[in-house]
């Protein structure tokens, strides 16, 4: 950030008194040779404070948007993984049915029920059954 006192030439000042004058441009107290004797502390104006607040709000909004996107992506990943899990369980269930493994098919059907309920997935028809 450019320091307004350092970048000022101090050409427009009050009348000199005891070798000192106040610059109208930057507020510094300068000597007759236009050298800074005293550099005032910059107090932000109302507009500067508003601009800073707006910038902070924008930064916060961007961070919240990024967090929302990350959370949404995690939910989509979880949904994909849960549906993948169900499809793999259905494959195992179908395989157990084909080989007439009743206990295994019941166990896979139970697992499908649990996963579907846990992730609020519509349970598909299993081999035409309802």
Number of strands: 3
- Mean pLDDT equals 87
Distance between the termini: 71 Å
Strand order, largest beta sheet: 1-2-3
Radius of gyration: 36 Å
Regions with little confidence, pLDDT below 50 for 5+ residues: none
Number of alpha- plus pi-helical segments? 2
In total, how many domains does the architecture comprise? 2
| Shape call | rod-shaped
The major sheet is characterized as:
3 strands, antiparallel
Describe this structure in words.
This protein has 130 residues and is mainly alpha-helical. It has two domains: 42 residues, no CATH class; 73 residues, no CATH class. It is built from two helices and three strands. It has a three-stranded antiparallel sheet, with no helix packed on it. The mean pLDDT is 87.
Q: How do the helices and strands line up, and which of them pair or pack?
A:
Elements: E1 20-22, E2 29-31, E3 36-38, H1 46-98, H2 102-118
Antiparallel strand pairs: 1-2, 2-3
Produce a short descriptive summary.
The chain is built from two helices and three strands. The chain has 130 residues and is mainly alpha-helical.
List keywords for this structure.
130 residues, mainly alpha, 2 domains, 7% strand, rod-shaped
